[in-house]
Amino acid sequence: MALLGLYAFPQLRVNWPSAVGLKWVLVHDIAYGFINFHLFYVLVFAWLPLPVKRRQYAKAAAGTLLVILLFSVIKFLVGYYLFPDQVLQRMFALTGVPKIYMSFREYLPVTIRTGLGVALLAYGYRLFLQWRNTEPEDRILATAAAQARSRYDRMQEGSRQLLHHLQLLTPVLEDEQKREEEGTKAVLLLSDLLRYMLYDKALEKERVPFKKELAHFERYIALRNLLHPQQSIALHTTGGIPQGTIEGLWLQQCVEASLQQWQQVTGTITIALTCSEEVVTLSLETPHQKKNHQHIPLFPDHV
Q1: Do 126 and 183 belong to one domain?
Q2: pTM for the full predicted model
Q3: Of the candidates 221, 263, 217, 264, which has an alpha carbon nearest to the alpha carbon of residue 241?
Q4: Transmembrane region positions (predicted)?
Q5: Tell me: the pLDDT tens digits for 188-231?
Q6: Number of domains in the chain
Q7: Which of 123, 125, 217, 224 sits a CA distance of 20 to 30 A from 207?
Q8: What pLDDT shows up at residue 20?
Q9: Are 180 and 136 members of one domain?
């Protein structure tokens, strides 16, 4: 409405002394400008959002024409009943000459041209709003998709590792001497790991509490020691347990990636977790002094 006032102000200032000119400006620029503003508003916020969002451009164009036609009828009725001399009169009549007014058929092309101009502005503004509103949504969806893909990859890799451990568990269960003690303990550990990976709600999020992840990691190390007695792992944690969060299954994947390179190494492999409030340092060392260090970031638990 402020723009409408700015548009009509020069004409108002010029035609202020003339009653006829002032009424002409009030009707054509302000009253009908107000109607055109509502046409713009209806198109932008009532009709166009849904078809533009769904990219149904033919439907948007057809509906826009119907809305323009409806407002053309409104404009004609307003002019016919309230302002016939300012809206429908063909030309200013001389004194004593009867006035000639336009019919609806004659007035329709004039008002449709105006309506099409308003519709073009409305369509452009709707596209701008759609672009501005959907760009953040697209970024959020892309981020969520990337996070879901990352979680899926981690769980798939973890499942592959557990399946491998399950295959290694078969000889232990077939050995009567190991079945009761080592076999039972390995089955319980494997069951806990599977329950954590498949059913724990924490893994549905991008990050899990470090305390929970560390408990899972300790069970994983215990299971691996049972299934790989020739390559035992000694886990040492220093620095306390921070309150932050970490990407789920990340410790397990880091260790597995290193152990895959040391498959021929026998003896005890030492894993040291040095914890602080912002980072966890994962260090692996073999009996032959081979070392591997990784720094894993921690995140605040409210993120």
Answers
A1: no
A2: 0.52
A3: 217
A4: 30-48, 60-83, 107-129
A5: 888 888 888 777 777 767 788 888 889 989 998 998 888 888 88
A6: 2
A7: 224
A8: 67
A9: no
Assigned domain for 152 exists: no
Taking the mean position of all CA atoms in its chain, how far away is CA 127?
Answer: 19
Of 42-46, 106-110, 253-257, 299-303, the least confident: 299-303
Give Cβ neighbours of residue 192 (< 8 Å, ≥ 6 apart). Answer: 219
302 has a pLDDT exceeding 70: no
Report yes or no on 168 lying in a domain: no
Helix/strand/coil (H, E, C) string of the chain?
Answer: CHHHHHHHHHHHHHHCCCHHHHHHHHHHHHHHHHHHHHHHHHHHHHHCHHHHHCCCHHHHHHHHHHHHHHHHHHHHHHHHHCCHHHHCECCCCCCCCCCCECCHHHHHHHHHHHHHHHHHHHHHHHHHHHHHHHHHHHHHHHHHHHHHHHHHHHHHHHHHHHHHHHHHHHHHHHCHHHHHHHHHHHHHHHHHHHHHHHHCHHHHCCEEEHHHHHHHHHHHHHHHHHHCCCEEEEEEEECCCCCCEEECCHHHHHHHHHHHHCCCCCEEEEEEEEECCCEEEEEEECCCCCEEEEEEECECCCC
User: For 26-38, b where at least 16 C-beta lie within 10 A, e where not — what string?
Assistant: bbebbbbbebbee
Identify the domain containing residue 79 by its residue range. 2-140
